[in-house]
Amino acid sequence: MLLETPRLVVRRFRPDDAPALSAYRSDPAVARYQGWTAPVTLDAAASLVAEFAAGDPDRPGWFQYAVEEKADGRLIGDVGVRLHENLMQADLGFTLDPRRQGSGYASEAVRAVLGDLFDRRGLRRVSAECDARNTASARLLERVGFAAEGRRPAFTWLKGEWTDDLLYGLLADRWRQLTDTDATPAR
């Protein structure tokens, strides 16, 4: 499984990705809105990488894609996809090294994965949700074409507090409309 963009390779995880995964997932700002707690030790990252590498993107459940920057071959983030049992819809999430944020890498990686899900695999819908305080993730979802579908107040208990969740969805017809007209929102 390999997806390429002008600046990125989106691929399966490899054992040598553990140090980079540990580094960016150990950043408290990166972990703030995520389900894990920083720091992520090198041993824990190695276990995660082994688990991610063993996944099957064509089977129901979560599959984590590694996002590699072509220029230096370094892991800079990951995109997770949870394929539903019906194989027609999925949930999506993403994490990016803070040193690479703000340069369009996350949008580029997410678009590559969405293209694969909709164009090659024929999914009907992709959903995403994020903590309402995570405005950067919400903006990214909207930039790549997701529509805001709702807000669940005080829905998730995360790291000792109740948080609001923002809900997003993207239908295949909308994706095709965006990509067929070359009107995909700019990064």
Automatic annotation (TrEMBL):
<dbReference type="Pfam" id="PF13302">
    <property type="entry name" value="Acetyltransf_3"/>
</dbReference>
<dbReference type="InterPro" id="IPR051531">
    <property type="entry name" value="N-acetyltransferase"/>
</dbReference>
<feature type="domain" description="N-acetyltransferase">
    <location>
        <begin position="8"/>
        <end position="173"/>
    </location>
</feature>
<dbReference type="InterPro" id="IPR016181">
    <property type="entry name" value="Acyl_CoA_acyltransferase"/>
</dbReference>
<protein>
    <submittedName>
        <fullName>GNAT family N-acetyltransferase</fullName>
    </submittedName>
</protein>
<dbReference type="InterPro" id="IPR000182">
    <property type="entry name" value="GNAT_dom"/>
</dbReference>
